[in-house]
Design brief:
Layout (H helix, E strand, L loop, with lengths): L1 H19 L1 H5 L3 H4 L1
């Protein structure tokens, strides 16, 4: 289950980053995010 916990941690960090920089990310094309 290590992979799952790592994925959840990465997703949590991504959410925090998304909330913190939502405006900058909203102005960034999805291809650059992915």
């Amino acid at each position: 289950m290590f992979f799952m916990s790592s994925a959840m941690a990465a997703f949590s960090e991504w959410r925090l980053d998304l909330i913190t920089h939502h405006k900058a990310i909203a102005e960034t094309p999805l291809c650059e995010i992915a």
